[in-house]
User: What shape does this take?
Amino acid sequence: MAEHNNSTIFQKFFNSEKTGGVLLLCCVVISLVIANSSLASSFTNLLNQSIGFTNTIIDLNYSISLWINDGLMAVFFLLVGLEIKREILTGELSDIKKASLPVLAAIGGMVVPALIYFIINKNTETAQGWGIPMATDIAFALAIIAMLGKSVPSSLKIFLAALAIADDLGAILVIAIFYTSEIHFNYLFMALGVFCILMLLNFLKVKKLYYYIPLGIILWYLVHHSGIHATIAGVLLAFTIPNESKEDTSPLIKLEHLLTTPVNFIIMPLFALANTNITFEQGMVDGLGTPLGLGILLGLLAGKTLGVTIFSYIAVKLKWAQLPDKAKWMHMVGVGLLAGIGFTMSIFIAMYRLVSLYS
Assistant: This one.
């Protein structure tokens, strides 16, 4: 009965995402049109407009684009994290062999693109940008697979979501270890303390969400100020929210229902509008032929596909993991291609690399 309820909720989630995916792509087009029109500078100025406040204790004065990418996207990661946790507890990922496959595939999807990039850019000034093609843009990847509807097994959508989260966590670690000039360990240790309190609430079987959400906001603030990308706070919070077998009493399912509509129809469209604000200029196409351009392009298109597929194949053949239900190897190749949508996460890593070079 519990498995049936989980399946029903998951179908509702992705049915909503299918419509949200169409809206997301429409916002991509709108943003690109604005960026290449007379409204470009005004739109950029709007995104750079600061909102918030600062005093001697709290610093919450950020640009609109940062609020979207670090604030609202943390809510998106919270929703995806809730879905992954529920599948680990009672669904598709409850089997250890199925749960391990996304992680192993994500490792392949990070190692192979980085290796391809490094080989192409070896002994050049861009050699240290190997982290750029490692990242998967989870938002766009999930939106596209959701739009494919029933032609894709639902288990494969769960697999992609888990792979993308593991991939993004890996990208965040790369940024923290290799590309961040300074980690503020005082904030990091305070964030760890808040996370431990959240875990304690879960252990004590506290079910009221109003205990978790304020602590989750504090966790986000501390992670953000630590120098690590704040979206990881959404995933951490998700894994502390308790789940129950009955839908009407499960805090996890209640929160998932609460977040699905605003994430699909407000947060994701705003994310697309803010992050596809790209002006096309002369020389951009020529740049694809440089070692930097080829490294990123081949890393994302070929490296991701090969890495995800080969590592999955090895893991399954060695019986370390198991394919998702009703999935075939052609499906896995397709997931590898979707994982190659680096886009905003790749741009994000590239920006961190530039900051580390000039700070």
